[in-house]
Specification:
The complex is a heterodimer.
Chain A lengths: L1 E5 L2 E11 L2 E8 L1 H56 L2 E3 L5 E3 L3
Antiparallel strand pairs in A: 1-2, 2-3, 4-5
Chain B lengths: L2 H6 L8 H12 L6 H9 L1 H24 L3 H19 L5 H26 L5 H31 L5 E5 L5 E5 L1
Antiparallel strand pairs in B: 1-2
Classes of the chains: A alpha+beta, B mainly alpha.
C-alpha cells in the first residue's frame, strides 16, 4: 500500500493486488476518503503483523517444549532398552519384547 | 522431531541415542565384537541413570514453567498434582525403570496439555497453522500412549530388581537394589 505522486502533482493512494498470478498496482483515490482507506489498510497490516509475530512466538515455545520432551524421552527409552537387552530380552519383529530362549 | 534429530540426542555424557541403538542392536544379534562397548554401557549405567534423571527433571521443570506462564501458585499446584500423578502411576514398589517411565508418562501428558492449551488460546489461525498444531498434537498423543504401553510391557515382563551403585561421600560406594 502506498501513496504515489504522478508528474509531480497530488498524492494518490494505491494498493497492490494479485490478479491472475501477477501483482498489479490499483488506483484507489485521493483526498480524505483515500486517507481513511489508507488508515484502515495500515490497521489491517498492523494486526496481521502482530498475529504473525504471535504465531512465531507460539511455534518457538512449542519447539522448545518438544525439544525438552524429546531429550528425556530418548534417555528413558535408551535406559529401558539397555535394561531389557541386558536381561536377555529382544523385540520380536520390532514389536513386543520377548525373553530369548537359552 | 525427525528420527535423525532424535538419534543425535545425547543420553549420556559419552553416548548419543544412535550409539546406544547401534550397540544394543549388535548385542542382540550376538556380535561379540561389540562386547567392549557393551561393557562401556554397563559401566556407565549408574551415571546414565543419573543423567536421564536430570534430563527428566529439566523436561518437567521446563514444561511446568511454560504451562504456568510465570504464575508461581499455578506452578506449585501443577507440580504437586504431577508428583501425585507419578506416585499413582508408579505405585509403592516401582523399580527405577518403572519410576522413570511413570515420570515420562507425566511429562508426555504435560506436553499434550501444553499443545492443547496453546491451540485453544489461538485467536485466529490459517489452515496451515491449524494443520501444524494438529500434527504436533497427534505426535505428542502418540508418544504419551507409547510411554503408557512401554510401562505396561515392562510390568508384564516382571524384570528382576536392578542394582544401582551410588558413590557416597569419602569415596565409598553404596549399592542399592531397586
Amino acid at each position: 500500500m502506498a501513496w504515489e505522486s504522478r508528474n509531480g502533482a497530488g498524492r494518490y493512494y494505491t494498493q497492490s493486488k494479485r490478479v491472475g498470478g501477477h501483482v498489479k498496482r490499483v488506483y484507489v483515490g485521493t483526498g480524505p476518503v483515500a486517507e481513511l482507506i489508507a488508515a484502515l489498510d495500515a490497521d489491517t497490516n498492523r494486526k496481521r503483523e502482530e498475529q504473525r509475530a504471535a504465531m512465531i512466538a507460539h511455534k518457538e515455545q512449542m519447539e522448545r517444549a518438544t525439544a525438552l520432551v524429546d531429550r528425556s524421552w530418548a534417555g528413558v527409552m535408551g535406559l529401558t532398552r539397555t535394561v531389557l537387552v541386558a536381561n536377555g530380552y529382544y523385540r520380536h519383529h520390532r514389536g513386543e519384547w520377548r525373553k530369548r530362549r537359552v | 522431531m525427525s528420527e535423525e534429530r532424535s538419534a543425535a540426542v545425547k543420553i549420556s555424557t559419552k553416548l548419543t541415542r544412535a550409539d546406544y541403538e547401534e550397540i544394543l542392536d549388535l548385542a542382540e544379534k550376538g556380535d561379540k565384537s561389540v562386547l567392549p562397548r557393551v561393557r562401556e554401557v554397563l559401566d556407565e549405567f549408574p551415571g546414565l541413570v543419573s543423567d536421564v534423571g536430570n534430563l527428566t527433571r529439566i523436561a518437567k521443570g521446563g514444561m511446568l514453567d511454560m504451562l504456568s506462564d510465570g504464575n508461581v501458585m499455578v506452578r506449585e499446584a501443577e507440580e504437586r498434582y504431577l508428583a501425585e500423578m507419578v506416585d499413582g502411576i508408579a505405585g509403592p514398589r516401582a523399580t527405577i525403570i518403572e519410576r522413570m517411565l511413570a515420570e515420562q508418562i507425566a511429562i508426555c501428558w504435560l506436553h499434550v496439555r501444553h499443545i492443547e492449551i496453546k491451540y485453544a488460546h489461538l485467536k485466529s489461525y490459517t489452515l496451515s497453522e491449524a494443520e501444524y498444531y494438529q500434527r504436533c498434537l497427534d505426535r505428542s498423543q502418540k508418544r504419551y500412549l507409547r510411554a503408557i504401553k512401554t510401562l505396561a510391557q515392562i510390568r508384564k515382563l516382571g524384570l528382576p530388581a536392578m542394582q544401582v551403585n551410588i558413590a557416597a561421600k569419602g569415596g565409598k560406594q553404596v549399592n542399592v537394589t531397586r
